[in-house]
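queue> holo job accepted (fe (ii) ion)
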Amino acid sequence: MLLILGDLGLNEGAHLLLKRALAGVAVGDVVLVEGSAPELAVHLRGWCRAQGHEFVDEGGRLQVRRGSAQSGRWRGAERAGEATKVVEQANPTWGLAGRSATVEAGAPSFDFPLRVRDEVWAEEAARLYAQAAAAQWDPATAIPWDAPIEHPDEVEDAVVQVMTYLVENETAALIIPARFTAQIHPHFREVMQLLAIQVADEARHIEVFTRRALLRRPRLGLSTAGAQTSLKTLVDEPDFALSSFLLSVLGEGTFLSLLWFLHEFAPDPITSEVARMAAQDEARHVAFGLAHLTHHIQADPTLKERLAMAVHRRHDALAHSAGLNEEVFDALLLLAAGSWQPDDLRRGWQRIQKLESDMDEGRRKRLQRLGFASGDAAQLSSLHTRNFM
Ligand SMILES: [Fe+2]
Ligand SMILES: [Fe+2]
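queue> job finished
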């Protein structure tokens, strides 16, 4: 094959023509190169050495013999799996490369602690991610911020107290998946993306709950030691499976009932709507927690016992935190009652009882989906934190 470069030098882009010509001949075949660029022979010799081809200069007749495919820079390169299939263990040296990329030998090794498929993966991750991406909403337009607020001051105080509590719970729900997002090997891209969008969901929840609280008040309400102690046990849990179980399955699962309750009994349309929008997002967070833990338990049946122990451990750690949730509880009661009339308060109280039994039922149902027998599910549900999350 003859390649005519004219006066184009290898340092001016002629190497692309050369690569294309070599790609068109078999290994061992020769491309004859003609050109008038200064020092062409010198440049060709260096380029061929770097690329793993043979250079021959027969009295000014310049030839390049194509080297074997695995020569040169790409010798020892490794394919980072297949585009549409995940491997059981992702290789640390694949690093940040996308699935199916060819990774040059000598690329640095990254320390992603979560690189075993069965510890993070769920087939549902891609579908849930697509669903989440399609369901992103704009807090500025999705919430009727200008709707009237006509209830008494004390009811507004109750709203502010509930929002204050929600904000700190949402903050825990943001920083926990954010941390694990950075620990998951990027080979499991769909899981990484799903957790990232979950973090974005929580950022939005923090925003709308804060904004609702500050609509009529200059500051948030009370943040109790008990509630924060409960959340700290979540934030401090280093294990992905245990953390997802406590946060997503039990905590966010319980929050689903709470948010729908707030949607129903909110004293104004703004509060009602922020609760509804957040609840829709939370359903996805719960679904992913259940999906990857189901996968993980199938691969490792001993996990179930560890999950149960985590609930007991958390319960014991929180056993001495007194007055947990009292301010929030009273605020919820007032919202559910809608007034200070004794009959209304009794009805509010009954609604709270119903809420707590809905929460318990939801937890038991999810625990059974993970394979817990109904008696074990009932016991574990009863040990769940009074802080709900
Ligand atoms: Fe949330
Ligand atoms: Fe969430």
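queue> The first strand starts at residue 2 and ends at 6.
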